[in-house]
């Protein structure tokens, strides 16, 4: 079902408010970064967006956009939003590419490791044996390949030995890429088996990310794009959603509990004041050294 494009009538009041739109842009940028008014478009009923040239360094082809609106029956124009938007010929950054899609064939080098996804559609369980070479190759042999009508000559044991030595030297365990690999091609799911006398030592690499893709490789060769190069599954993280509009009504906040009043301290009985010591009085001294002049007694009259 094809939806028809909806067009809106341009509101005359919002369309005439060019100065209001320019003033809104001046709140975001200096006047030198704002060009002339280039046009407007109706985004809805009583909603108009004005466009101005943008002279912001580094933003070639971008323009200022100011959206104005008003309430029905009211000529007061208000500003909805102001933004710097790209035009048709604007300079934009390239589209973002997921990490697992950024690697291209031929990017794997010596010491690099490429993790294989558990559900890689290029691989099947090994029990299927769908890549085993056919025992009988009569179906692959042309009808004219009868005795005396086939190839005039075939590879001799000496020719096979020289080819094996050459391949083993270029794509064997001593190759630069193979030295940094932990696994060999003998256990890789991207290895195509070949028949004949050389099938026990060599195969064909079918991994497009491997530096040996499409080449004959030794069973002892290896690279970082091995099919069994896996990693522990990361902890699944649900997609986060930031809701800046809705809210949850949690009710009124609970009133804080009043702090308990401190208990009055127990009044201790006042300590008894010590009794004053009696004042010392002069006591006459007895003995030969006593001062008799200081001793007073009853007066005695002398007889005449």
Key descriptive features of the protein:
alpha+beta; 7 strands; four-stranded antiparallel β-sheet; 304 residues; flat; 11% helix; Nuclear Transport Factor 2, Chain: A; 4 helices
- Major beta-sheet overview: 4 strands, antiparallel
Uncertain spans, ≥5 residues at pLDDT below 50?
Answer: none
C-alpha end-to-end distance: 168 Å
Q: Mean pLDDT, as a whole number?
A: 80
Strand order of the largest sheet: 1-2-3-4
Short description:
This protein has helices at 12-16, 18-26, 157-170, 176-179, and strands at 34-44, 47-54, 62-69, 78-86, 191-193, 202-205, 216-218. With 304 residues, it is of the alpha+beta class.
Write the layout of secondary structure elements.
Layout: H1 12-16, H2 18-26, E1 34-44, E2 47-54, E3 62-69, E4 78-86, H3 157-170, H4 176-179, E5 191-193, E6 202-205, E7 216-218
Report on the structure:
- The chain has helices spanning 12-16, 18-26, 157-170, 176-179, and strands at residues 34-44, 47-54, 62-69, 78-86, 191-193, 202-205, 216-218.
- With 304 residues, it is an alpha+beta fold.
- Among the domains are: 12-86, Roll (Nuclear Transport Factor 2, Chain: A), CATH 3.10.450; 101-218, no CATH class.
- The strands form 2 sheets. Strands 1-2-3-4 form a 4-stranded antiparallel beta sheet, with helices on one face. A 3-stranded antiparallel beta sheet has the order 5-6-7.
- Strand 3 (62-69) and strand 4 (78-86) form a beta hairpin.
- The longest helix is centred in the middle third of the chain and has 14 residues, at 157-170.
